[in-house]
Please model this.
Amino acid sequence: MINREHKKLNVDKVIAYSFAEPIVGHNQIEAPGAVFRSKGEWYRLRYWCETGAKHLDAHKLRYEVGAAVPHGEWLKHNLYD
Model:
């Protein structure tokens, strides 16, 4: 699900592996189970990026913002305030 209300994301933390392990390929990373924290709340995130050879820089990035993660699930997924 894409939440188009997030035109400019105010993000202070991204975790690529909270709901699923990232898939690392040759010069690309896909994170289908990522999350990000914005204004004290956690949101589901899926992203794909094309990287350099060492995966340290992103050349292209696509992402989809999902629903907020309910507070009751934070502990299970190692999320915090």
